[in-house]
Each structure stands twice: as structure tokens, then as C-alpha cells.
Amino acid sequence: MQTKRLLKVAAVGSAVAMLVAACGGSTSGDSSSSAAAGGSAAPASSAAAAAPGGAAYAGPVGEGEGQVNVLAWPGYVENGSTDPAVDWVTDFEKETGCKVNLKTFGTSDEAVKLVQGGGWDVVSASGDATLRLIYGDSVQPVNTDLVPSYADIFEDLKLQSFNSVNGVPYGIPHGRGANLIMWNTDKVTTPVDSWADTFEADSPYAGAVTAYDSPIFIADAAVYLMATQPELGITDPYALDQTQFDAAMALLEQQKALVGEYWSDYTKAIQAFNSGTTAIGTSWQVIANLAKAEGGKVEATKAKEGATGWSDTWMIVNDTPNINCAYKWVDHIASPETNAQVAEWFGEAPSNAKSCDLTADKAFCETFHAGDTEYWKDVYYWNTPTATCLDGRTDTQCVPYSEWATAWSALRS
Predict the structure, then answer these.
(1) Which fold has domain 179-308+398-412?
(2) Which of 65, 242, 269, 294 shows the greatest Cβ crowding within 10 Å of its Cβ?
(3) Can you give the pTM of this predicted structure?
């Protein structure tokens, strides 16, 4: 099962590496709060109109249309075909009469293009895709009154800047994870609680540092600068004006001299940590768990400066002809039982608070900090940088993702 999960989690690792230019349109100050937990916009009726994608479905949810066409990350929709014990599709189809037609995708860019191409009803979208889908009028607001499971979603995942606009939700949170600092305990003998040894020029681990190979890693540098250079005024690592962006890139240029290997294939990252080739660098909780399972001497923690992270959202496509089956699906996938299965199979914190009592591993939610609200307060979930600053500033422009990609390419050349 570990091998299967490794292959499935790899898709998430490739997601941010293929981000494209920022979404069109602009966000208002009300919806552009920090992506960290606690930074949600003011609540509003889920059926509110005057938002991208029009008004939410008024309901009620009726008899299903017979099918639901699902776009999802690998590992999010299992039907027992590879492991009979892992199946949260068959019972749904029997109970609702909605046949699940699944297509998986490998990157957020691919997901956006598939949604825009038509023929789909729901999509599991990462934070780097959600705003593009919302402002591209590709997805619709969600009437959470029609999704009973929504009531049990952790409050600090609701109405975030990447899954809502002006207090209107555009999907149902799926799960989340933080990007951690990890080290090989044979190489780093004193426990670490800071990103300093991965960024500062005097790091004792020069040549054995690793970093995530993606433009979105610029946000990791910004998180460190938030704590160490507060005079820069960074409040959201995805909302960087030119001065802030230049400071982040300067830090990354400094880090480049320390890096022995940038990673995008996390299976190779595990091998490097376990062999000692890599001493310290960025990682995920599931990677740390799998590295230990393979006998690696590693430890991982969230750095004291905070961290980037990710949270995915189930969204309903704007022109779906299968609206009833779509609502039945998002309620099912977010239900306590199903969300527990998905989270444990995939390796992420569940979004449904009641799922923690239903995981096979009773320590699972503790390991992944599922209900630890304080833990997530300084985790900044992946978002799509736009020229309109996501932190609400209107007196300046921020650097859009297209320029993040160009700068990262130049750094890595």
C-alpha cells in the first residue's frame, strides 16, 4: 500500500511545478486575506449572487441524473480496482444511481484546461488552480445548505482566499498539508526548528541542503523573510510587490550556493535523505512518514517562522447538466467516513472534523495535525499570485505568477 500511496502523492508534487500565469480579473480586499488559517473572509449566504460564476444552485437536491463526470488528483477517487479494500465509489453509485466517470490529471494546469474544455461536473482543485477556475467563470458558487457534510468541515478551512470570493464559497474543502523542514539525524545531530540552516549563507550544511524545485517555492523564501525581515512588510507570501519579490529572489540566490539538489520527484528526495546525501531541507509530513517507514533516520517539523502548505477544494463546474449528482458527490466525498478513507489512503489531514474518529490508525489525525487549529495559523496554503495583491493592498501592484515562473527559470539555469 505504501508504494501505491507514493505513486498517488507524486501527482501532488507535480501540481505546483506546472502552474501557469495568474488568473484573470481581480480579487477584492474582502476575499484576499492571508491563506493561513484564520484569514477567511466575512461569512455570507452560500446562495449569494453577484459573484463570479453567477448564483449558487438553489436546490433542493433531487433525483440524480444518472452520472457524474469527475476530474480528480490520483488517489482521491478510488473504486477498488487496484485494491478491493479501498473503494468509496461503489456504494455511492448504488445509493444515488449516479455513475462516477473518472479522469485523473497530473497537474493543476491540466485540470484547468480539462475543465475549460467542457464535459465535466466536479473537480478537485488545488489552491494554485482555484482562482483561475473561479475568475474564468468555470465553476459556480456552492450552496453549502445543500451539502450536509459541510457543517463538519474544520472552520479554519472554510471561506479562505483561494476557495471563496466576498464570503461566497466556491467549493468544499478536501484536505490539507504543511511543507515542513526535515533533516537526517545522522547529519544534523541537534534538532532544528528554523529555516535558517536552509537559507543563511553560513549554514553548516552547505552542499547538502535540498529545496523544492518549483516557482511556488519563492513563497517559502517569503515566509522566512516575513519573520526575519519584518521591515519588508510581507503579510502574504503570495502577494509580493516588486521590492518584496526582489528580496525573496535575493534570498533564493543566496540559498542556491547551499543546495546540493533541488527536488520535484519526492521519491528521490526520500532516497537522498535516507542515504545522507541530503542533510536538511523542505519536505511534507507524508514524505517524512514514508522515509521513516523505509528505515530512514529523519525528523521533520514545522519551522518556527511558519510554512507554506496546500489545501484542495471540490468544485462544481459552472455548466454541469448533472447538478444533482454533483451535489450528491461533493457531500459524499466530504462525509466523515469517506473523508477519513481518502485522507488516510492519500496521506493528508482530513477536512472533516468527524473523520478523525473513523481512521484505521487512531493516531493518524494527531500525526497530521488535523484538528490542531493553532498549528495551521501560520501555514500559508498555496495560492496563485496575481498582479492585484492578494493581501488587499490597492496602492501597488504585485508580481504575477508568470513573472515568478520566469524568475525561477533564471535561478535554476
Answers:
(1) D-Maltodextrin-Binding Protein; domain 2 (3.40.190)
(2) 269
(3) 0.80
